[in-house]
Structure prediction request, 310 residues.
Amino acid sequence: MQDELPGLIDQFLEYLEIEKNCSKLTLRDYKHYLLVFNNWFTSTQPTKTVENLDLATIRKYRVFLANKADVKGQTLQRVTQNYYVIALRSFLRFLIKNDFKTLEPSKIDLPKTESRSLKFLPKDMVDRLVTAPDTSKEEGMRDRAVMELLFSTGLRVSELVRLDREKINFERREFGVIGKGGRARIVFISDRAAQWVKIYLDARKDKFKPLFIRYSGKVLEEDDGERMRLTARSVERIVKKYVRSARIPVDATVHTLRHSFATDLLYNGADLRSVQEMLGHKNIATTQIYTHVTNPQLKNVHKEFHSGNK
Prediction:
């Protein structure tokens, strides 16, 4: 029955795509994680099937992951190893839901990983970063608008590059996005971000649909300009470029601006549930990673009551 495993994996991926509306990136990652398991399982456990999968086999697989090298020849980080196991647990849960007999996924524990430090920029560094582009040029206007919008909205880079110019409601200072897992949410724009997006759009002479377009390479005249759309990789390069030129002492990325958006709101008194909605987090536990660095009440308590402040 081991030859059935690839077919079951394909069924699971179809389920993720159709029923769970997972992104292509998520599907790609799950496929990779499960094919690694399939290759290991069929080569090292030739007498076993997914039906008699047990914890002893899972422990052997965990040892394999702990010694597995990545593309750079380094062993997988603990958090990366967990991704493989999370994918396997989801697959087993799918099998049980569809009446296949296999190991109960809840029996597979995930070891705790070290908390990763949360990188964010304080307001003065954000200002240094977003004012770094040369806005006398259209490309510089675009770059300023990109970074202002990222900080103003907390958008994921994939959400930003999918935006079309007609979707922005400047009067209401808002627009809608479809985020992770197909979840829709309303995104609000700050006055400054709206101003720079409008400056950039007013400077453009093209009629291309994408909100942000590229300025390198061949100009492709087509009806909607889809092939002129700025890519996620290009946005990442833009942010890195100005992090260097503005001499920001943090290795900031696009996601750092998302963290900065959340910490800015919470530090200034926004409640956690509202920030969860604005970030498009499915679970509030994901949003809670910000609270330990953004609680001004705790800071005030420390200042008032700690003897070292007397």
Notes: The chain has two domains: 2-107, 123-300. The two ends are 72 Å apart (CA to CA). DSSP finds 13 helices and two strands in the chain.
